[in-house]
């Protein structure tokens, strides 16, 4: 029970990945505040409902754990503050924050409306910021009360490989998920002195958010491993939330059934220098145009080899 005595918040935990993560944290001993706004549409539409969050909280309690449901919009600053207060008031402290809540409003960039952009950025990116802001303030105050000692908080954020691949029909989602990576690494640096870690996962899992992506890839019915089951993502979240992961922070992971990959920070793919103060247009055309002509579109951004292309 590596999380015994710990308190966790999991946002968007009424279904899918969030539910699997909440159940895993409870299995490892944590008391869990199960947050979900409960709207039925994956685009955030419909009436809010307490049913999804309460169902997961009840599932945890029936298994012998401790859980409280919270129905609220984490993209609302005050409701996010209320969520953190609920965890602290109910269980005495907050130790783990898992940000998972999100919606989809897919559209090509040339057709996307302002509301489709704003709503996805709001729920994913602002939602991650809001809860992080209040959890971070809580840990900072706890550290002050302990004469500056570490408090050991944990943040696990949910990004996506869409921020790397570009995901052409999801400019809002890809931008939000890229922003979450930046928020994660910044938070990791800011909270390190308090003993708090922050990491991001890019999960591959079959949920209502990804039903289009994995259409046709149904769960196997022969008893073999379902590599896209949300339950295969949850153990990494449990590990990152545990004391054993104190030395892991500012990292980005890709995870699905049977596989965990640690992403590297972007590397320089090619370096060009000029002996003069600045390149001319013709010089850049003479070097960069043939360089990119030799590579498939998008390959260079993901490359890890330093090519050492140099001029001067």
TrEMBL record:
Q: Which GO terms describe its molecular function?
A: 3-oxoacyl-[acyl-carrier-protein] reductase (NADPH) activity
- The EC number on file is 1.1.1.100
Q: Which Gene3D superfamilies match?
A: NAD(P)-binding Rossmann-like Domain
Instruction: Spell out the SUPFAM superfamilies in the cross-references.
Output: NAD(P)-binding Rossmann-fold domains (SSF51735)
Which leading EC class covers this enzyme? oxidoreductase
| Domain Ketoreductase span(s) in chain numbering | 6-233
TM region positions: none
One of this protein's Pfam families, by short name?
A: adh_short
What is the species listed in this Swiss-Prot or TrEMBL entry? Streptomyces bingchenggensis (strain BCW-1)
PROSITE patterns hit by this protein: ADH_SHORT (PS00061)
Name the domain of life: Bacteria
Q: Which UniProt keywords apply?
A: Oxidoreductase
Q: Which family does it belong to?
A: Belongs to the short-chain dehydrogenases/reductases (SDR) family.
Alphabetical list of PANTHER family matching this protein: DEHYDROGENASES, SHORT CHAIN, SCP2 DOMAIN-CONTAINING PROTEIN
Record InterPro entries:
KR_dom, NAD(P)-bd_dom_sf, Peroxisomal_Beta-Oxidation, Sc_DH/Rdtase_CS, SDR_fam
Protein name, as recorded: 3-ketoacyl-(Acyl-carrier-protein) reductase
């Amino acid at each position: 029970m590596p999380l015994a005595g710990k308190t966790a918040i999991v946002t968007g935990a009424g279904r899918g990945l969030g539910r699997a993560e909440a159940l895993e944290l409870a299995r490892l001993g944590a008391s869990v505040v199960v947050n979900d706004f409960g709207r039925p549409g994956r685009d955030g539409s419909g009436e809010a409902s307490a049913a999804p969050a309460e169902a997961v909280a009840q599932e945890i309690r029936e298994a012998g754990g401790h859980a409280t449901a919270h129905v609220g919009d984490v993209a609302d600053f005050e409701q996010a503050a209320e969520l953190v207060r609920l965890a602290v008031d109910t269980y005495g402290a907050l130790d783990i924050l898992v940000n998972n809540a999100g919606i989809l409003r897919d559209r090509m960039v040339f057709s996307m409306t302002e509301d489709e952009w704003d709503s996805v950025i709001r729920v994913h990116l602002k939602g991650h910021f809001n809860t992080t802001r209040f959890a971070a303030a809580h840990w900072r105050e706890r550290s002050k009360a302990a004469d500056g000692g570490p408090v050991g908080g944990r943040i696990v954020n949910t990004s996506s490989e869409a921020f790397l691949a570009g995901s052409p029909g999801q400019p809002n989602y890809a931008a939000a998920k890229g922003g979450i990576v930046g928020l994660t690494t910044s938070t990791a640096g800011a909270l390190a002195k308090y003993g708090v870690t922050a990491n991001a996962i890019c999960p591959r899992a079959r949920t209502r958010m990804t039903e289009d992506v994995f259409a046709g890839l149904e769960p196997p019915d022969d008893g073999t491993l379902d590599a896209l089951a949300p339950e295969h993502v949850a153990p990494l979240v449990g590990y990152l939330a545990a004391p054993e992961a104190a030395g892991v922070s500012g990292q980005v992971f890709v995870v699905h059934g049977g596989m965990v990959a640690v992403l590297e920070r972007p590397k320089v793919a090619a370096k060009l220098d000029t002996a003069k103060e600045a390149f001319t247009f013709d010089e850049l055309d003479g070097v960069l145009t043939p360089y990119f002509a030799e590579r498939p579109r998008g390959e260079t951004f993901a490359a890890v080899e330093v090519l050492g292309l140099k001029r001067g």
